[in-house]
Amino acid sequence: MTLQRVETAAFSDQKPGTSGLRKAVSVFQQPHYLENFVQSVFSTLGQCEGQTLIVGGDGRYLNDQAIQRIVSLAAGNRFARVLVGRHGILSTPAASHLIREYGACGGIILSASHNPGGPDGDFGIKFNAANGGPATEQMTAAIHSASLTIDHYWRVDMPAMSIDELATVQVGETRVEVIDPVAAYADLMASLFNFEAIAALLSAPGFRMRFDAMHAVTGPYAIEIFERRLGAAGGTVINAIPLPDFGGGHPDPNQVHAAGLVALCSGDDALQFGAASDGDGDRNMVLGENFYLNPCDSLAVLAANATLVPAYADGIAGVARSMPTSRAVDRVADHLGVPVFETPTGWKFFGNLLDAGRITLCGEESFGTGSDHVREKDGIWAVLFWLNLIAAREQSLAAIVRDHWAQYGRDYFTRHDYEGIDSDAAGTMIKGLIDVLPNLRGKDINGLQIIDADEFAYRDPVDDSLSQGQGVRIFFNDGGRLVVRLSGTGTQGATLRLYFDRHVDGSGRLNADPQQVLAPLINAAEDLLSIENTTGLDTPSLIT
Ligand code: VG1
Ligand code: CO
User: Fold this and answer.
1) % helix / strand / coil in the chain, to the nearest 5?
2) How far is the CA of 451 from the centre of ligand 1 (A)?
3) Which of 19, 369, 370, 534 has the fewest CB atoms in 10 Å of its CB?
4) pLDDT tens, 81-110?
5) Is residue 282 in contact with ligand 1, taking CB distance under 6 Å?
6) CA-CA distances (angstroms) from residue 294 to 83, 254, 286, 298, 415?
7) 141-146: Cβ within 8 A, 24+ apart
8) Which of 19, 113, 298, 371 is the catalytic position?
9) GO cellular component terms (predicted)?
């Protein structure tokens, strides 16, 4: 095995988005494309000698090959130790945990998360730093600038190694260990939740649940945790085998892409509990019997009930939510007398707050919830949290949420996505909106009045860094809010995201359809943005 210096030319399109570098598989198949980016990560880290690196992915197409190439690059950059998940598998939260557990300087997670996989789908590379969390904005910018000037990378010429059995192999100066991807994570979960109470719930007559792994990474984790350790009946975990193309599906746990699970939780024979996760295991959708739980409400209810879970029995230090997430959790924080932080979209913005002990729980409207147990959102963790609450409160999921609304009121929320639209048209629309922001205050639209409008900027209270241009917020006189931003995770054209929320207090209408309650705001958005004209779409591609 020899150390090689390989000459290369920079690519101009390796700027990471909201969550890593995400591109069509064909883009990653260009010679040197993957190597350039990974070397840019290692060069940004600086000193790799003597360090430990964690590597794994969600099992999608290219995962195996990419792991071989990353091991060879890690050896070329003289890492002391590389830990690889068996079969190349590591969920995003499990990788975050391993980085922390092994004192690694970081980890590479191969995933395009909820984007479809397969040869015609997407691939992605995320780098998480030593705290276990996504690289900060500053580090991401440094990686991008390294990718623009790279002219060589280092690798060790090695035969393909087997990653299907636990083993240790020496590659140059680097010890490569294939490890169990599930065990440490399952142990962590057992240390946080009341497994005895959850096991009793799962075996109680009249409680039936399914966990839909969507043929993505959580299958092996869910089988170990729900079926083996908690004793749920065989078959509780469905679509449990990770497949390179996710069985042709779209591993995004929402009402549209997990429609099969929604059907199982609907009707006369509905299950009492359903849950799903995404490609890389960091998202969650949780359903009750004939009851859809909005992720914004989920975060609020978890915060309000946290002390019922052993890990949070002493209370929570604070909470954070991404800006587009509804303000439901803010009401809980006020009630508890703990701080609430509003951050830009993307988990990287929670890391400093978690590291500094300023928050314990955080979440995003995009089916992401998490805590200080790792530095990523965590799908299975959220499901266990809910099961723990249902067991502790001896109430159904719907009853818990309805009690919550009765106390705090309900923050009706919906997100409308317009996918695959023309990037230039989308950019022009957003720019046009930003230009008129100063004139919007006081304007009447469709029976509503705008009381405030701004472009969201965030100053990190820990390191004082400033992140600007993080989406437009428009506040209305009925307490409603419209948020407008473009997605940073798509790979084709642009995706316009519109987020609507409005609070109704506890004595008001609590069980209405969010689309109806929010219709005045939705109509105001059409008036303000001429969405149909700009996007060419007369209805959203996706409504959550
Ligand atoms: C989306 C979500 C965001 C989430 C990100 C990564 O980003 O809106 O809340 O953090 O995906 O999630 P964007 O820029 O497309 O809106 V995942 O599960 O891809 O790691
Ligand atoms: Co994900």
Assistant:
1) 35, 25, 40
2) 29
3) 534
4) 999 999 999 999 999 999 999 999 999 999
5) yes
6) 36, 10, 8, 6, 11
7) 142/44, 143/16, 143/37, 143/40, 143/41, 143/44, 144/14, 144/15, 144/16, 144/40, 146/39, 146/40, 146/41, 146/43, 146/44
8) 113
9) cytosol
Atom of ligand 1 minimally distant from the CA of 19: 6
Residue 117 tokens, joined: 């996989």
Name the CATH superfamily for 410-543.
Alpha-D-phosphohexomutase, C-terminal domain (3.30.310.50)
| Other CB atoms within 10 Å distance of the CB of residue 186 | 18
Domain with CATH 3.30.310.50 in the chain: 410-543
Cβ atoms 155, 4 nearer than 8 A: yes
β-pairing, 21-24 vs 122-129, is antiparallel
Sign of CA dihedral 437, 339, 313, 407: negative
Tell how far CA 481 is from the center of its chain: 23
Residue 338 CB coordination number (10 Å): 18
Average pLDDT of the chain, as a whole number: 95
Identify which of 237, 352, 377 has the alpha carbon closest to the alpha carbon of residue 302: 377
Distances, alpha carbon 40 to alpha carbons 12, 45, 55, 150, 506, in Å: 13, 9, 16, 7, 52
Q: Is 347 helix (H, G, I), strand (E, B) or coil?
A: helix
Q: Near ion ligand 2, which residues have CB within 5 Å?
A: 113, 278, 280, 282-283
Tell me, what DSSP letter sits at residue 462?
T
CA-based Rg of the chain, rounded to a whole angstrom?
Answer: 23
Residues of each domain in the chain carrying CATH 3.40.120.10: 3-181, 185-408
End-to-end CA distance of the chain: 51
Span 224-248, pLDDT tens digits:
999 999 999 999 999 999 999 999 9
What pLDDT band is residue 488 in, cutting at 50, 70 and 90?
confident
Q: Closest by alpha carbon to 264, among 209, 215, 222?
A: 209
Q: Which residues contact 214 (CB under 8 A, 6 or more apart)?
A: 239, 246, 247, 249, 251, 253, 257, 258, 276, 277, 278, 279
Distance CA 527, CA 518 (A): 14
ipTM of the prediction greater than 0.95, yes or no: yes
What are the structure tokens assigned to 37, written together? 């980016």
The residue whose two tokens read 């860094």 is 465
Going by CATH, does the domain composed of 3-181 fall within 3.30.230.10? no
Residue 364 Cβ contacting ligand 1 at under 6 Å: yes
Look at residue 446 and give its three-state secondary structure: coil
Kindly tell me if the per-residue pLDDT of 278 is higher than 90.
yes
CATH number, span 185-408: 3.40.120.10
* Ligand 2 center to 114 CA (angstroms): 5
**DSSP state at residue 197:** H
Q: Compute the distance between CA of residue 82 and CA of residue 52 in angstroms, rounded to an integer.
A: 6
Annotated active-site residue 113? The verdict is: yes
Find, among 484, 353, 352, the residue nearest to 431 by Cα.
484
